[in-house]
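[User]
Protein folding is very new to me. Any chance you could explain this protein sequence and its structure tokens? I have pasted everything here:
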Amino acid sequence: MEDLKLAIIYYSATGTNYQLAKEAETAAKDLGLENIRFRRVEETVPEEVIKQNEDWLEHYHKTKEIETASVDDLDWADAIIFSFPTRYGDSPSQFKSLIDSTGGLWQNGKLVNKVVSGMTSAANPHGGQEGTLLSLYKTMMHWGAIVAAPGYSDPVIFETGGNPYGFSMVGGSDLGGKQKQAIAAQVKRTLKIAEKLK
């Protein structure tokens, strides 16, 4: 597993999906993985708009030094874990901008067999998390990627809400021990599948 390359790519306005992505990075390192690119999706909203939400502004300034994701990161990776909040049951426009820039990779077959898994959050327990992850996976099917949804591959998934599509939570909540275990199980499954393909 040591030679696998993992890209963890997230978009987060107020910090929840940053937190999920960092937990995924910790889980990958705990499995002995060293080739990890931790990237944030570039913020496309003007700062004048961000300033209207104190939490958004604080998180924006706190994390803007993190390297932004590019198509090169997607090309480089064997496995990719995405984390972003739901926007009306779909992905936010910032994340879509990254996906919309992958046409060259797609056309040249460079996204085929990438192993991909997703995590998300919403403001309430039924705020579109499942729809958001299914929407991501629909795009991944166009890539020819291999979707590594956690399913019910670990008992902890039942204990954390039972979302078989990928880890999800209510935004602004703190991660508990069981939730961290569920993220670790999803990361492990993603990397095991990538290892078998490689």
Observations:
- The longest strand covers residues 115-122.
